[in-house]
Amino acid sequence: MPILKMYKTPQVLYYFITIIIISTFVFLWGGVSASKHEDIGIYELNNGHFSIKLTNWGATIISVFLPDKNGKFGDVVLGYESVDAYKNDTTYFGGIVGRVANRIGGAQFTLNGTLYKLDANEKTNMLHGGHRGFSDVVWKVTEYTKDGESPRITFTYHSFDGEEGFPGDLKVMVTYSLVGKYKLGVKMEAKAQNKATPVNLAQHTYWNLGGHKSGDILSEKIQIFGSKITPTNDQLIPTGKIVSVKGTPYDLLKPYVIKSKINGLPHGYDINYVLDGEKGKKMKVAAIVWDEKSGRSMKLTTDAPGVQFYTGNYIENVKGKDGCVYEAHAGLCLETQGFPDSVNHPNFPSQIVNPGQIYKHRMLFSFSIKH
After folding, report:
1. Cβ atoms within 10 Å of 105's Cβ, excluding its own
2. Pairing state of beta strands 270-274 and 96-97?
3. Lowest mean pLDDT among 81-90, 127-136, 239-248
4. Separation CA 158–CA 202 (nearest Å)
5. In angstroms, rounded to a whole number, what is the distance separating the alpha carbons of residues 280 and 257?
6. What is the pLDDT of residue 19?
7. Residues 6+ apart with CB under 8 A from 334
8. Which of 163, 164, 220, 335 is catalytic?
9. In whole angstroms, what is the distance from residue 310 CA to residue 75 CA?
10. Mind listing the pLDDT tens digit for each residue in 142-195?
11. Which residues of 70-104 are buried (b: 16+ CB within 10 A; e: fewer)?
12. Does the annotation mark 204 as catalytic?
């Protein structure tokens, strides 16, 4: 007998149908991350010398205001006019990218005898954690001090087992803090809960020290403290080799104006540098950038083994802040990181975090103004 025919009264029938609808809703939506229902806000840190604004959508830096040599403040990072625009972003402006930053070839890897197939969001490969990586989720704000001597904010996120194909639950934390007159500290940590998993977080801000509306970054000078790179194939997947930069446009061991070197590359810079560092020191200088016109400079130090130097090669007609339209080379990225695709190259430093272990990643941006 059909189930509905068992009920003769309209009231009972209505009740039965209502139960079915509610049960279906819970089944379809019960597994959706609670983060989707949390508030998205904008938060400011200001120590009286400079200020930054962030959002808990992607734990994203949306502005950094610094004075130039004439004392005029300007915003030196690319970004959007509203938080909603970040939800449709394809450039990863300012966000924390992960669970694994950069690319994983073939969107798969084998760990402890198990093959994990991931979300392929760039052809057959995974880029920056998949279609819904860490830059596309809402983080919780667990600590916030807006001003004073040590302004800081901490964002946390729980990445569930199987998210974008990655194994195990992962608790992630990032803290931004203003330390000293012109210093921005970034501390990232992640703890594997129940399964071994790869973790490689990166901060993906696009910098333009002349100001985000000043045009391209090709006239800025850069020095990168890496004497080797991890070359890639035509899909930007590392080949597994580690080679010297000597005699190539990638040799930036001394300060060079970017446009004096970039013409030797098909599109621009988009490569991982193996950082040299000093023996016995965890923190090492990754890069220094100078903008002569504004007088601003930025030194980046990190405890990560590599840094991805990217010159915004594929930015095209992107509507940004203050009515600005960004084009190619409007900003540069210096993403300190583990080596790309390390899960598929045993000779690269491992990015595997076992249960109970804590992944740690530190960055310090030190700005200065030359009058």
Report:
1. 22
2. unpaired
3. 81-90
4. 17
5. 31
6. 37
7. 207, 286, 287, 289, 300, 307, 308, 309
8. 335
9. 20
10. 999 999 999 999 999 999 999 999 999 999 999 999 998 999 999 999 999 999
11. eeeebbbbbbbeebebbeebebbbbbbbbbbbbbb
12. yes
Q: pLDDT tens for residues 241-298?
A: 999 999 999 999 999 999 999 998 989 999 999 999 887 899 999 999 999 999 999 9
Q: Which of 128, 204, 345, 361 is catalytic?
A: 204
Sheet holding 333-337, edge to edge: 243-244, 228-229, 270-274, 306-310, 333-337
Cα Rg of the chain, angstroms: 23
For CA atoms 55, 159, 141, 37, give the dihedral sign: positive
Secondary structure (H, E, C), 209-274: CCCCCCCCCCCCEEEECCCEECCECCCCCECCCCEECCCCCCCCCCCEEHHHHHCCCCCCCEEEEE
Sheet hosting strand 60-67, strand order edge to edge? 42-46, 51-55, 60-67, 73-75
Q: How far apart are CA 208 and CA 328, in angstroms?
A: 12
Say whether 340 sits in a helix, a strand or coil: coil
Q: Which residue has the tokens 């950082």?
A: 275
